[in-house]
Amino acid sequence: xxxxxxDYAKALNEHYQQxxxxxxxxxxxxxxxxxxxxxxxxxxxxxxxxxxxxxxREQDLKHDAMQAPLxxxxxxxxxxxxxxxVNETEFMDDDFWRLALIRLLGANKLEKHNxxxxxxxxxxxxx
Length: 127
Prior knowledge:
mainly alpha; 5 helices; elongated
């Protein structure tokens, strides 16, 4: 006597859900303790999606940063940060720079790197 395909699928699904919940609990525990580990860190696309820059919304299309020419945005970036690496947290609360970042990334005017010792990416203008 064996296990049916349906029962096997249910058991497998439950197993994956338990694993996901364990990972989420561990990540939450690390965030609560303020720990940033460089080894054994758990990196999943879902985690990055919830931590990164807020996505573009319809009302953002009317913002000045969406109307400005890309060359002007690149010049403003250079004037503000020159050729320095800029942490993603700089853009969290500033809609203008958040939208400028989205546009410059979309036009391949910025390089982006995810550092192992923090949850946020860093960006630099491509000159």
